[in-house]
Write a structure and sequence with these properties.
TIM Barrel, eight-stranded parallel β-sheet, 15 helices, globular
């Protein structure tokens, strides 16, 4: 279904997982600890999770009186009270009204795979890779017990397999893997790709257990991705019990959300391009999604400048400037109204490292006019075709990368 003559591969659409997903899909031994979202979050496609007696909503958990609510919730009664307090906050009610004004029918029908296919048809998207909503928080508590964390990831992937099988040529899966045990992550990567047919792995960009992504402990996972021929994608979600940019703003969701997505993508880019991961793994593909793209020229310039004067790193340790590794192995997503993508293309010298995202059905999505809005940006037709189809098809290993249907 070409939109204005362009085939469109959306690098990053979202499913909206039912609150009881993990209770239904997790192995019996972990059922009592299963993560759970809320009906409010599910109805409104908002990121929210209750995990290991901790609450992770979009909003800093404060009550109507402004007092901060406890981070650890020791009983179902306390969890229910805190959840209610969070959902009554003005920010939550405003987002509910906004989401229901756009997505009431999809919400009423339970955010099924069929509703996503209908949204793709309305927007003009031919193919997409599916990322989670509440699942972005499903492993976002530091020091999770590794066996439990791996079971959480397996449960999500099994549910996602049942979701995408409704249209396997249009809906492709991105597997959740647990960073709490690299061995478990490697095992699940092989299962997700070889048995479930998924096209990517995804991780939060936040450091886990105090380790940076360039720590050699993760090398077996990057080697597995290379062997399997799939990329690793970093995708942030506001709310976390992991270290996160923007957390210093506390209950100010405006500033927290402005900060976390783009800044965490920058940190992850630094780890991979400047921390030596891509130098050690020259065929590994890495994506940095839903964090905008305008920061790319500045960050590459700053890293290259520090590399040039060997400030804390020698050319023997990192043979090429960080921008070399970004251009060779990375993509970053652009959303519909990022007019400054023209400057990114100009700085990089091509559009080869940029993929398109609608971010459906989250509040900052421009659905159902995301593609229409993107096509207003003054880019050459060749760049549009690369961004809307060719780069994404190459990144995810989908056969036809002509950009025409």
């Amino acid at each position: 279904m070409a939109r204005a003559g362009y085939a469109v591969f959306d690098s990053d659409m979202h499913c909206v997982e039912p609150p009881e997903l993990w209770e239904r899909y997790i192995e019996p031994g972990y059922q009592a600890r299963a993560p759970r979202s809320s009906e409010f979050a599910f109805r409104n496609a908002l990121v929210y999770m209750e995990l290991e007696q901790r609450l992770m909503p979009w909003f800093d958990p404060r009550g109507p009186d402004g007092r901060r609510l406890p981070a650890v919730l020791p009983s179902p009664q306390v969890r229910a009270a805190v959840r209610q307090a969070v959902e009554q906050r003005p920010e939550a009610r405003a987002l509910e009204a906004f989401q229901q004004s756009r997505f009431a029918d999809f919400s009423r029908r339970g955010w099924s795979a069929q509703t996503q296919l209908e949204a793709m048809e309305a927007e003009g998207v031919d193919m997409t890779v599916v990322f989670p909503t509440s699942g972005l928080l499903a492993l976002a508590v530091d020091e999770l017990e590794p066996g439990f964390a791996a079971a959480v990831a397996r449960a999500y992937n099994n549910w996602l397999y049942d979701y995408v099988k409704h249209a396997p040529r249009k809906l492709l899966g991105a597997a959740m893997v647990s960073p709490f045990s690299v061995e478990d992550a490697v095992r699940e990567a092989h299962r997700a790709v070889k048995e479930l047919g998924f096209r990517a792995l995804f991780l939060r960009p936040n450091p886990v257990c105090g380790r940076q992504w360039y720590d050699p402990i993760y090398d077996p996972l990057w080697e597995a991705c290379t062997e399997l021929g799939v990329p690793v994608v970093f995708h942030e979600g506001v709310g976390s019990h992991l270290p996160q940019a923007g957390s210093q703003f506390g209950s100010n969701i405006f500033l927290r959300h402005v900060a976390c997505h783009s800044m965490e993508m920058m940190y992850a880019t630094m780890a991979f391009c400047g921390g030596g991961v891509l130098a050690r793994h020259p065929t590994l593909k890495v994506g940095f999604f839903e964090g905008n793209c305008g920061w790319v020229p500045w960050l590459l310039h700053r890293m290259d400048e520090h590399w040039e004067i060997q400030l804390g790193v020698s050319h023997k340790q990192l043979p090429e400037p960080p921008s070399h590794y970004f251009r060779r192995q990375c993509v970053v997503s652009v959303e519909a109204d990022e007019d400054f993508v023209t400057h990114v293309v100009e700085h990089l010298g091509s559009a080869d490292n940029i993929v398109f995202s609608t971010d459906w059905p989250h509040p900052d999505s421009r659905y159902p006019r995301a593609i229409e809005r993107f096509l207003q940006i003054p880019l050459p037709e060749s760049a549009r075709r690369k961004i809307l189809w060719e780069n994404c098809a190459r990144f995810y290993g989908v056969g036809d990368s002509s950009g025409e249907r």
